[in-house]
């Protein structure tokens, strides 16, 4: 059960979590209904046996076509399953057309593609025979799914059926909505508790079905709505406060039954109309309005949610029978499929849940709105909303023009589908064909890993994996796809399409198309108008002159004696253009005035105004003073000059005197008008957005065979395979927090069971207040003084009883803590002080991963070693592709990495190259290594490997600490990879560095000697775990301090180092970091406009659903063009998110 008893406004984290839970329940409900086979799929399954029996090269009915010539000598073609559906609907006369017969291609009447007369006759007879049973078979399939066991995430059947699971998820959605209603103060605590009992099926008192009295006096039940009353009259009718409960839509409160009647009637017309309610009444014969007095209520005897799911099931059955019974109707086949699909997946339920999602998105967005927007002038707010709508409309126009070039995935899908249709004569969905590739990864000379990679054909193509045709296996098998489908065909298709190279060329051509450029220009103009108005509302542009300047230059107007100029901002030292920044200048006879448009700039502003160029330039230079400003400036740089520009910015950060008014300059546009000038900036930006256009990456066509997309793809799949095998060999491997949670849950619930307590309690939901007064409204947020039992057990350093009498228990899950055993506090005190779970966990890691006698020790060590090599190779390749390495450097690195293998032969080119650990303050930085050729003085062969560095650079020149630690992000990066015992020393080093030692040549010198080299890659495995265990021996003054240090150490190592390659094991850390913020919903062209980012209550909520940075991927997509979501809940949320509903716009 969710916590539905809170009446506070709620912390953002709690609201976000409940909204995420609501989304998860809705998505799960939708997924359950999507598991049905379509009518066409059922038809195909019926025909398979017949097709196989006639000994064709294919056994799939989808690969056979019933073709005939039409009057214009064109070919009319219909796939065999579609033919069966048509015969079921219209009779076998549809097969009597002259010249009609079965072929193996949809576009051919040639004899070479035709079936024999005997085969034709057998297939015709089968179609007629199955047409009589198709409807019944399909309906039986739909009905059978309701009682079918639900398949779990590990592909096992559970004891829970589909109908049971839908009841559970629909109840969970309503239960979670109750909590949100409490946060939004839409109902009282008592009302929440009342509804919670109804939703959970504990009470049917005061629960009614909704009916209305038709004109003929008959009473009809509305299947989608129910009423829950506060009290019941003597006549058994509802009274007092009542709630309209529409499980697919949510909960609405009314002060009286009379207001409920009026509200129901208002939902049938006007601005408040409810499509779900209207559909129910229309299907039941009511076409107009309903008088408020016509609404009546019938008491329910069964639980509300069970009744609701029964109605959903009944509606599916009834609507399906209705559609299938309409024999001979002239409805287009595709339209018929669409109608039936809607019934099959219970689309009305999914639609209602989507509307509920958007409704709560709107409410929660309003709660998260900034004050300037919430309390702004009504007229200005209305204008802002119109500008937002215009901006969204123009973005959609650009999206439509980009078409299938939105991403490499959409391009590949389109090209492959077209190729297969042309060469095979049928449509094959590349995302539904699975490729299994057998591979062998050499771990040692005497040890090889045999593995199988599995991808969809689309993923295979996009990743660019190059595999011999003979190693490919397909699912479905080729004979179910087409007679000519094979590994050789796929290899030929991918070689011919050359997707990566052709995508780059096609995208460049499209972005240079005048119609696309014009649409993108209008889109950017709408962002400027929107941002300027928002800046006015926020007080960012105070002078009317600034507003007039933006307005006049957009309209190509200038007062007499005034010159208007616009252009881009460049760093003078390297002539590097800032990607998004636009400068607008006004010059008169007496002065100058500037408006700076810097979308996404630090400090929460997009627009700035200045009275001189000196002011503007020093404001830009001022951004170097903090991390946010430096990040912004670095992110605005692109192209070949980026590295030099960043170097200049780093120097200016260290020595502020280097920044002068001339450090940046305005490069004016030379067009004839505003649209032409803005168009030139947009063109540069659009092409500069992609690494292969702006010079940050080498074009695919220019990559050598040793560093092309197929090599990178193979490294990626091998790393994934190595991680998967390691995880399978270590099924009990988990983070410390997971281990503590599991053991604490076991200890707690074993105790509760032993003293007769009936329930199960999650230790994450049981909180203790130690030494602070009791409160009626506990704060369960991340900054709360309350401590969860899991947290207390993790550190094992609290003497709970010492806080007596100020010891209070709270539950974040609504558990009645007063009903817990009286001795629970004593039990918890003893466990926290004595359980010592962190030490047990450390012992487990030591025994499991360092014991040389362990049967898996050798294999685990080899897997980790090979994975590290693959990651190093991938890092070198990516750095080369990003133009930060020459081909000679890349070749040298690959040879040095290969030379780390156990028993690797000595290669002359890297004989004097050493790979050694990197240290700061004599403390090892885990996972970071120095590559140096001691036989050369060339700095190009003295590099540092920094995997996962915040600037995205895996290999970088190794000069001195001043260069490496020039940014706070890199300082945090290195510090995060230091053991607990070494953290203090590194912190002291960084403090001295910041205070001025960065200018001391001796202090910043990095010492590296050949004798420190790593002899082979496998030694890293043992050293890593040994350093972690030795780290625990740091001297502490008390048991409590030692336990805290131990817990800290394990968290640091397992959370950021040991488990880095295993995303599945690292998930809890990402979820712990998720919290509510306002997302900058960056558009597809990475504008970063804050005004264009609608204030969505989404990052915290969907961040919890997706994990980690998933919410930003949800909004921004990958590279700003394609949307890839981590979970089904995220995909469902994205599909349901509707601008017009989730953020209210004017009519």
Main β-sheet, spatial strand arrangement = 9-8-7-6-10
Number of strands: 25
Strand percentage, roughly? 5-15%
Instruction: Give the N-to-C terminal Cα separation.
Output: 40 Å
Mean pLDDT over the residues: 80
Structural class: alpha+beta
What value does the Rg take, in angstroms?
Answer: 34 Å
Helix content: 40-55%
Number of helices: 43
**Uncertain spans:** 1-11, 1031-1039, 1047-1087, 1090-1126, 1139-1147
Largest sheet, strands/sense/barrel: 5 strands, antiparallel
- The geometry reads as globular
Architecture overview:
The chain is α+β, with helices and mostly antiparallel strands. Among the domains are: 205-301, no CATH class; 407-497, no CATH class; 514-694, no CATH class; 756-792 and 806-849, no CATH class; 858-1035, no CATH class. It contains 43 helices and 25 strands. The longest helix has 25 residues, at 378-402. The protein is globular and about 95 Å long. The chain starts with 11 loop residues before the first helix and ends in a 5-residue tail after the last helix. Residues 1-11, 1031-1039, 1047-1087, 1090-1126 and 1139-1147 have low confidence and may be disordered.
